[in-house]
Design brief:
Elements lengths: L2 H24 L8 E6 L2 E6 L2 E6 L4 E4 L2 H9 L4 E2 L12 E4 L7 H17 L3
Length: about 120
Amino acid sequence: MSTSAISDFVKWRFLRDLDQLKDLVSALDRDGGDLVCKHFFSGAALYQSGQIRASLTPIELAFKLPETRCDELIADGQASALRYFEKSPIKRGYILLPDFRDSSKTAISSYFEECLAYASTRSA
């Protein structure tokens, strides 16, 4: 595969992930208008007030939530811990939804709402 073809594929995948994140976020009824979706490494991230609140990779959706809520979701088997690499430390305060594409938009929206509500209670 040529360098140009690889570059085109990477651009397409970034745009696809960014568009998918924008689609997921569009279901939210937000007044503030300070939500922004941008490219983030191999996917896309949702920013609020300049801080990452959620991110989408080609296989997983991550949310920033209170650590106690993360622990609860992980213990219940609804989510997994965020690690940037296989043997890296767990990123505290984040959860991953590896099967998020199988979830309803309502369920995903509830995680976004919870994430943004948590962010509004502190400068996370």
